[in-house]
Structures are given as C-alpha cells and as structure tokens.
C-alpha cells in the first residue's frame, strides 16, 4: 500500500454565493431552447458554445447532445486513416427540484468510456455522484477500469463551519474509488477552517495492488514513490491555484452581474490552453 497526502490553503467560498450561482446556471439552461441546426440558444438568443442537440427533445430524458464537430478521420479531413471517434452526452433526467442526471459516452476502436453524473436536489444543491467505466472492446480484464465518486456540499459546509481548533471531519465530504484488476485507489478530500478565514484542504490518495500482485505493486510504488509524490503534490498545488484564481474573478459578482458572467462563459468560445 502507498499513501500520498498533501494539504493546501485556498480561499473560502461563500455558501450563499455558491447556491446563487448554481440556481443562475440552472435557470439559464432551463430557459434555453433548440435553434436551427440543433443549436442550443439561451433566452437572449445566444448559442451555447460547443453544444448541439443531436437527437430527441431538448431537456427531455433521452436527449442526445454533442459538439457538432466532425469525428476524427471523417471524410474530407486530413487524416482519413484515423479511427472515427464518437462522443455524446445523453440527458437521463432533468428535474431541477429533485435530480439531474447526465451520461457521457466516448467511444473509439481502442477504448470506450462511459461516465454518469447525478446531482441531487440541484437547487440547494445536494450530493453530486459520479460513476465511470472504461474498457478496450478488443481487450480482456486488464483493459477494464471502473470508479465511483461522491461530493456532499452539506458535509463540506459542516466541516468548514467547525472551530479551527476542532479535529477534521471524520467522514471526508469528497471521496472517490477506482478499481482495476491490478489494483485499487481511493481519493479523499477533507477541508477545515484556518484561523484567517481561509480553508485548509487535505487531499489523500491511497493505492494498493490486488490479489497476488500486491507485492509487485508495493515494490513498483516504492521505486517510483519520489516521482509519484512530486507529481501528486504538483497536481494538488495547481488545482489550488486554479481555485484561487477563479474565486478572485467570480465571487465579487452577484445578482444580474453574476448571471451575465455565467451566460458569457456558456456562449463564448473557450480560449485554447498553452502547451
């Protein structure tokens, strides 16, 4: 077994702001409609960037959405020998007062990944649940991976509302598990308040081999521990930096200004990330 842990300090998010932003997002999507060519239009007529209705009725169970771009290797592209890629998001449930569920499917000849996300009591919001399964259609059990995750906002707020001198919450508000034939991994995220009003967030990753491969996995993890530890810490630090940047840009906005910012984010093309 190998355990990796790293704690970062991030800015605290106001709960009322978080819930207002969630309601604004749901209202913008809930009042959207289908336009020409399957484009999804907000109430002001602007199209949601990178989203198109491919099949079914908008915001009805079974509606299938995609980016609208041609698959890799389709006729007329520069790489006709490439294997076509299929990617779509299917709406399984749209009841903002109770539950929203979407399923994302990514398929290629060499791999297939299916991800389901369910948000309970979206207007509050409640628990966010995720499940993932992936496999190589041409491979055996070594090419299969599954995972589950859960984030509980109520438990998160309860954890950060505790006195800073109190011990961390016994049950992590965010947790996830991944299972492969060769091993298992568990990730937990637990916040606690700092004396200056910020949050201290501890991220823990535990990995272990399965069955007769446990000794082999232990040796491999031992040899690579320094490199894995460095990569793990860098990933957590980067996530904290992204959080703090977004927090500084968005949280000063309320009401119509916040709603307008979310609408702009939905309709403006995303800027390419530097390599």
Brief digest:
With 275 residues, the chain is an alpha+beta fold. The protein has helices spanning 15-30, 153-160, 214-250, 255-267, and strands spanning 2-10, 33-34, 39-41, 47-55, 64-66, 86-95, 99-107, 112-120, 128-135, 144-151, 174-180, 183-193, 199-209. α1 (15-30) crosses α4.
What are its keywords?
about 280 residues; alpha+beta; 13-stranded antiparallel beta sheet; 4 helices
Structure description:
The chain is α+β, with helices and mostly antiparallel strands and 275 residues long. It has one domain (2-72, 83-259). It is 27% helix and 36% strand. The chain contains 4 helices and 13 strands. It has helices at residues 15-30, 153-160, 214-250, 255-267; strands at 2-10, 33-34, 39-41, 47-55, 64-66, 86-95, 99-107, 112-120, 128-135, 144-151, 174-180, 183-193, 199-209. Strands 1-13-12-11-10-9-8-7-6-5-4-3-2 form a 13-stranded antiparallel beta sheet. Helix 1 crosses helix 4. The longest helix has 37 residues, at 214-250. The protein is globular.
What characteristic shape results from the CA principal axes? globular
Number of helices: 4
Number of strands: 13
Structural class: alpha+beta
Largest sheet: 13 strands, antiparallel
Model regions low in confidence, pLDDT < 50 over at least 5 residues: 70-82
- The overall pLDDT, averaged over residues, is 87
Q: Beta-strand level of the residues, as a percent range?
A: 35-45%
Q: Please give the alpha-carbon distance between the first and last residues.
A: 34 Å
Instruction: Give the SSE order as H and E letters.
Output: EHEEEEEEEEEHEEEHH
Question: What is the radius of gyration computed over CA atoms, rounded to a whole number of angstroms?
Answer: 21 Å
Helix content: 25-40%
- Total number of distinct structural domains: 1
């Amino acid at each position: 077994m190998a355990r990796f842990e790293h704690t970062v300090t991030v800015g605290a998010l106001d709960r009322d702001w978080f819930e207002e932003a969630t309601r604004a997002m749901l209202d913008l999507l809930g009042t959207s409609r289908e336009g020409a060519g399957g484009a999804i239009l907000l109430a002001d007529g602007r199209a949601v960037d990178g989203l198109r209705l491919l099949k079914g009725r908008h915001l009805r169970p079974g509606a299938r959405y995609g980016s609208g771009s041609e698959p890799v290797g389709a006729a007329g592209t520069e790489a006709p020998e490439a294997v076509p890629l299929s990617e779509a998001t299917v709406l399984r449930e749209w009841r903002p007062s109770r539950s929203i569920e979407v399923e994302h499917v990514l398929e290629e000849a060499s791999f297939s990944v299916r991800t389901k996300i369910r948000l309970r009591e979206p207007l509050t919001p409640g628990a966010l649940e995720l499940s993932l399964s992936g496999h190589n259609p041409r491979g055996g059990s070594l090419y299969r991976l599954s995972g589950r995750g859960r984030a509980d906002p109520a438990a998160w707020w309860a954890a950060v509302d505790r006195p800073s001198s109190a011990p961390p919450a016994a049950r992590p508000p965010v947790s996830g598990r991944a299972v492969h034939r060769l091993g298992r991994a568990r990730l937990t995220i637990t916040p606690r308040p700092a004396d200056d009003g910020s949050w201290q967030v501890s991220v823990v990753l535990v990995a272990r081999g399965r069955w007769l491969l446990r000794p082999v996995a232990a040796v491999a993890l031992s040899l690579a521990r320094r490199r894995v530890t460095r990569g793990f810490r860098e990933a957590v630090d980067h996530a904290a930096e992204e959080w703090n940047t977004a927090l500084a840009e968005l949280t000063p906005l309320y009401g119509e200004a916040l709603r307008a910012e979310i609408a702009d984010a939905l309709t403006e093309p995303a800027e390419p990330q530097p390599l």
